[in-house]
Amino acid sequence: MGDMFRSEQMALCQLFIQPEAAYASIAELGESGCVQFRDLNDEVSAFQRKYVTEVRRCDDMERRLRYVESEMKKDEVKLPTLRPEEEPSAPNPREAVDLDAQLEKTDNELREMSANGASLQANFRHMQELKSVLENTEGFFSDQEVINLDSNRKLDPEDPAQAQGAAQRGQLAFVAGVIKLERFFSFERMLWRISRGNIFLRRSDIDGLVDDEETGRPVLKTVFVAFFQGEQLKQRVKKVCTGYHASVYPCPSSHAERMDMIKDVNVRLEDLKLVLSQSADHRSRVLNSASKHLPRWSIMVRKMKAIYHILNFFNPDVTGKCLIGEGWVPTNDIPTVQDALARASKTSESSIPAFMNVIETNEMPPTYTRTNKFTNGFQNLVDSYGMASYREVNPALYACITFPFLFAVMFGDLGHGLILLLFASWLIIKEKQLASIKEEIFNIFFGGRYIIFLMGIFSIYTGFIYNDVFSKSMNIFGSAWHMNYTRETIEDSTLKSITLRPNDTVYKTYPFGMDPIWQLADNKIIFLNTFKMKLSIIVGVVHMIFGVTMSVVNFAYYKKYASIFLEFLPQVLFLLLLFGYMVFMMFFKWVTYNDTVEGPLSPACAPSILILFINMILQGSQDTPEPCKEFMFEGQKSIQQVFVIIAIICIPWMLLGKPLYIMFKRRMSGAPPPKPQSGGGEGHGDDEAMGEIFIHQAIHTIEYVLSTVSHTASYLRLWALSLAHAQLSEVLWNMVFSMGFNYDNYIGGILIYVFFGAWALLTVGILVLIEGLSAFLHTLRLHWVEFMSKFYEGAGYAFEPFAFKTILDATEDE
């Protein structure tokens, strides 16, 4: 946990690598994932860099891999899943050449098979449609001796009988084909229009679905024959068929010729089926063979492309015999980087080993916080607000405890906390099996499993404090109250209620949490309201004081000792003398006023803390009846006046202290006043104009003074959500589950199961999920706004090292 107090210390390193060892060196660094490289060729376009040819070759290999993978998806070929230990390393240049050749061979073979397969499928569909035309038009040509319908047969000019018959009847022509059923009716109307009703159209639907040659989807098709007279009309009909994507096929009108043609088509169909079957088997063998290597090929190509991409960041020296690169490295990982460079030099048999130098720089390094699976969730919550500045105090370390605690204050129920604990425990126990699930919503819960686990534990704790289990109380230690009324008094029907005074009826202190007798009290809501309201203010003020105190750690580390006296001291005094004093009055009131004494210290004379605080700020007063007193102790009014005066003095102290100190420091150093600059930044830089410094400090002072009031009031959400959660839980119990207890016979036993199911569903859905999400978001806001704004700047940028694991995980998510 010590690593989480601040981000890792970073060093800007310069790498000197021989060109022959550059590829192996970057491959080793990619496996270690310790270096964030800087681009030393910003002014050079991507097409003019040294390794652009290699990057293009990797792009071409990725394109081939995508094509092979898409073909596998078409044929539903499953890819094997590689375990992390089976992932291949980056290929060396010789292996890359062999991989490129293998991918090219597989790609060309699949493309050739796809083209041939598409051609064979098209021929097979055409043969099937031709067969359907020949078979379905059998009834259209019933009497060839009476009417000549064969448009392909020539009349014998020497036969006077045929010539005379043709002259008398006129020769009819026809066109036969196949069209989609959905287009046929529009097709029929178009033929009628172009022929002015001089076309006779017949159709016969094809049984079953036929694959569409345009989309490949199964559709309904129909066979049609159009009879007409004249060559000119024939050309029009064919143009309409082309426009409607209707396939036209030759169809003799002679029965004998049709039968011979059907036999020929059947023979060709059988041959095509055999060829298609053999082609599919060969394609399946090729895809299954490629599927065994495709995951390894994909990883190797991605790693190789990433290496050349990083090598384009390097800058060759003047002689061209060395590559120079720069990158940020955590100081704890410098030995790891040196070992990786040594291994790469040995592997590539380089004559000169690669080496690394640490460069001194004034540039702000990236922020890197080392986490594990437990702390990663809390760190992500903090990083969502803003990446910490370099070596800034990390709030995630304290959020590991304060976040689930504040959540539990709002979600305090032992039963609901147990549900969260069981769910998180299941996620933790099964985390190895569940880590492979890529569903987005589930991954949100899975990533925060340890947060949910702690929220469940703390909710169980606060549930014991509130003595609340699904809106019911537990009498573990026995109530500390006893009844001092007689039976006749209790059974008196004229009494609506009886009062238990602590002085007469309390004989001990309940050891832990809330006394269960409050579950039966009429003033339960009033009592819990005051208790939880004061508790939320106390927790909030302590939380904010802790946040302000953490700013001292930042000031001391960055050696801004003047800020401790000019910023921290007035801020903490302002907070303590006003709201810290209000918390003191709460505890003093609890200790001083009780039911065992009479007079000014009796409960009836206890003053309102809120009224006292308002009168303290406004310097007002209130009338109190005898024997009560306005103040709780002697000299309280004078102390309050002193506190208010000091708090008011803290405002100009915060407003003018730091700007005047900077002005005095510049005059003592004799430096010329800086010129005003456009734009601004965080904090007060040495080159910032004094006018901007005064403006920034005024903004920060106004923000702090106003936010001290608003943030204290904001912690009242702890009370409000806790009360709402308890009341909603009680409503669900009384209006749903308890209805099953109203029946004494066997029906009541059945209804208990029914009502229990409804109650359990509503409890999990509303009180655990919805209320839990609401409490989570409110807790997140209390940390981001009320706590972290007191000391956390969040103006850094993340450390993003070159790591193959990150690259491969990002590709899988896409």
TrEMBL record:
GO terms, molecular function: ATPase binding; proton-transporting ATPase activity, rotational mechanism
Region described as Disordered: spans on this chain: 75-96
Basic and acidic residues: bias regions: 75-86
Any coiled-coil regions, as ranges: 96-123
GO cellular component, one term: vacuolar proton-transporting V-type ATPase, V0 domain
Main location: membrane
Membrane topology according to the record: Multi-pass membrane protein
UniProt GO BP: vacuolar acidification
Transmembrane segments: 405-429, 441-466, 537-557, 564-588, 600-618, 639-656, 746-770
Location within or outside the cell: Membrane
Keyword RNA-binding: no
Record flagged with keyword Coiled coil: yes
Keywords: Coiled coil, Hydrogen ion transport, Ion transport, Membrane, Transmembrane, Transmembrane helix, Transport
Domain of life: Eukaryota
Family: Belongs to the V-ATPase 116 kDa subunit family.
PANTHER family: V-TYPE PROTON ATPASE SUBUNIT A, VACUOLAR PROTON ATPASES
Annotated function: Essential component of the vacuolar proton pump (V-ATPase), a multimeric enzyme that catalyzes the translocation of protons across the membranes. Required for assembly and activity of the V-ATPase.
Protein name in UniProt: V-type proton ATPase subunit a
Species this chain originates from: Drosophila rhopaloa
Gene for this chain: LOC108045865
